[in-house]
Task: structure prediction
Amino acid sequence: MTVLKDSFRYSAEDVANYVIVYCGSKRKIITNLILQKILYFIEGEFFKYDRDVISEDFCAWKLGPVIPSVYKTFSIYGGSRLLPSSKQPGEIREEDREIINAVVDKWIDVPVWEIVQVTHDTDPWKDTYNIFGRWARISKSSMKRYFENIEKIRRSWKWAVSGMTKEIWSEMFWKNCPMKSMIRKTRNLWRTIRQPFIPGTAVIPIRTCLMWYIPCWMMRVSGKMLSSY
Result:
């Protein structure tokens, strides 16, 4: 496996306890099944930053990736709401908490069977389960490779769509737009309206006048447009 930039790692139970406490602070219910999937996505999210943050390995179980030690710790709750284990959790660094919180916020309200299906569609679980069978260990290298590639695809797609959108706007609309002058005037007018109040200036009277001017101006423009038909 490639050497990671930051070797700082947490035990899976420490991360699990933090997730449970965070969900409690948000008044969200989390079960053992959902916890396992969120831990999987947390590890995947850190791999995008070239980090292996959870020290234990995941295994390919029937309902998706699972950390057996964490599952065993919280198995006493069955399918009910989890509470933090009695073990005193380790300290999670501030920058890591932000990433973990973002992952939890993204997935905690998604229906559980939808989350299970998403994990089933990921290559690390799918390849391990189909080739080596149930209970097999999912290699961290396969997870790292998969989630890094997902991030690269997302960034390249976002860049391509953004570039195409700007090009289409410029070539097909803006250059030949008959209302270009009016749009520019409206934009400049809006910037004037948003000026902060400066004591001793006439900003408030100007802003008040503009509040009356804009509706009248828009009515005048719309009248001209209607009369042209």
